[in-house]
Design a protein that fits this description.
Belongs to the ERG4/ERG24 family. Its EC number is 1.3.1.70. The chain contains 16 helices and 6 strands. By secondary structure, it is mainly alpha-helical. The chain binds NADPH dihydro-nicotinamide-adenine-dinucleotide phosphate. NADPH dihydro-nicotinamide-adenine-dinucleotide phosphate binds next to helix 9, helix 12, strand 6, helix 14 and helix 15.
């Protein structure tokens, strides 16, 4: 294949352009390490000054790279097992469609069996708590190395395989955004694999390690810890059960695979989304299950709205979506203006945010740290909504304006 240095016409740089692409890869990894340090400190204050800094010895453990690489290899092996069906992605620029194995839920189940087996063999899973910082350091290292590999390999990809956004000719920005849309090694799709496997399943394994640490320390798991583990396991199991829906999301359809997604998938998700469980190990809370109403409502809205759009995009004549009101667009695709997508323009984000709040409530109201995820996720989804809005306006023009008039609120009905 020939070396490809061609650039795409670039409308507007995202994430603060070159400055953002230079600062974010420094700032976010430090944030992960900082939050992990704060959450195990007695005060657990995110605004404490001077900040809690660990001795360098706590950042490294030779077991950590073995665990991280072993984990990636194990999940890759599950990905390659001939289980589940093959599904086609959306149509690409050259008119082709890639095939993806839908077996993430099996990977979760096999992982659960292996965890049970390791418990039975007496493996100290609670030791994950002590290993959190070195594991995060290694995951960050792997993210940088993988992003570099992807950036270099992208120069051998054909032009039609490049993402619109990460192909500006500016190395820092392109490294961050990702040049190639669907980098693969043979039929192994690196972006699709990283999106839902090592980080997401890793997150619930870390949570379980925190629960075992609590059992070690206090002889039993607290209600708060069980709720956090249960809610987050439900979220991950749902994502993997509905794995096919990821094929119509922005990450797969639009964004290149660069540091932004690699780091998000492999380091940010497993190590910051598990902060609540890690927090509870050091700061036990005795609480009633306040979050249950929220989780049910949030989960319902999140699942129903994502499934409705996914079904509509895959087969608009399916009985579950055929009667919904739609608007025609110049591209031939239609936009839903009733059902969940008639309530707000991103009902799936609304549901996700309600759930995020439910995960934090079992941690009580005395600390800000367990609410870090809700605050960060609100910022992320508001920014993501604005990006998607820009893409959709560029794609659908007048039809998008008409959709916005029909459905004036973006995420929160009558508020935003
Ligand atoms: P969405 O699934 O919301 O997809 C957006 C796309 O849907 C648009 O680009 C458009 O694409 C299509 N669309 C928009 N409006 C309509 C409409 N009215 N009718 C039909 N199609 C429409 O994108 P995301 O990838 O952002 O989100 C997927 C899920 O992942 C969400 O639930 C989100 O909360 C979750 N998520 C979770 C994260 C986490 O860290 N936990 C991070 C990011 C997302 P087109 O028209 O081209 O089909």
């Amino acid at each position: 294949m020939k070396f490809n240095k061609q650039k795409s016409p670039q409308a507007e740089k995202e994430f603060g352009g070159t400055l953002g692409a230079t600062c974010i890869p420094v700032f976010l990894p430090l944030t992960v390490l900082y939050l992990l340090c704060v959450c195990r400190s007695p005060v657990a204050s995110v605004i404490q000054w001077p900040p809690v800094l660990p001795p360098t010895a706590q950042l490294w453990d030779p077991l950590a790279p073995v665990l991280i690489l072993g984990w990636m290899a194990l999940q890759s092996f599950f990905y390659l097992l001939p289980m589940g069906k093959l599904s086609e992605g959306m149509v690409l620029k050259d008119g082709s469609r890639l095939k993806y194995p839908i077996n993430g839920f099996y990977a979760l189940c096999i992982t659960a069996v292996l965890l049970t087996l390791s418990l039975w063999l007496g493996m100290p899973l609670g030791y994950l708590f002590e290993l959190l910082l070195p594991l995060a350091v290694c995951a960050i290292g792997v993210s940088f190395l993988l992003s570099l590999y992807l950036y270099i390999c992208s120069f051998w990809a054909p032009h039609h395989a490049l993402a619109q956004g990460g192909n500006t000719g500016n190395p820092l920005y392109d490294f961050f955004m990702g040049r190639e849309l669907n980098p693969r090694i043979g039929s192994f799709d690196l972006k699709y694999f990283c999106e839902l496997r090592p980080g997401l399943i890793g997150w619930v394994v870390i949570n379980f390690g925190m629960l075992m640490k609590e059992v070690e320390l206090r002889d039993s798991a607290s209600l708060a810890m069980i709720l956090v583990n249960g809610f987050q396991l439900l979220y991950v199991a749902d994502a993997l059960w509905n794995e096919e829906a990821v094929l119509t999301t922005m990450d797969i359809v639009h964004d290149g695979f660069g540091f932004m997604l690699v780091f998000g998938d492999l380091a940010w998700v497993p190590f910051t989304y598990s902060l609540q469980a890690a927090f509870l190990v050091v700061h036990p809370q005795s609480l009633s299950p306040l979050g249950i109403c929220y989780i049910c409502a949030g989960y319902y809205i999140f699942r129903k709205s994502n499934s409705q759009k996914n079904q509509f995009r895959r087969d608009p004549t399916h009985p579950s979506v055929a009667n919904l009101e739609t608007i025609a667009t110049a591209t031939g695709k239609r936009l839903l203006v009733s059902g969940w997508w008639g309530l707000v323009r991103h009902p799936n984000y609304l549901g996700d945010l309600l759930m995020a709040l439910a995960w934090s409530l079992p941690c009580g109201f005395n600390h800000l740290l367990p609410y870090f995820y809700v605050v960060y996720f609100t910022v992320l989804l508001i920014h993501r909504e604005a990006r998607d809005e820009r893409h959709c306006r560029a794609k659908y023009g007048l039809a998008w304006d008409s959709y916005c008039r029909h459905v004036p609120y973006r995420i929160f009905p009558y508020i935003y």
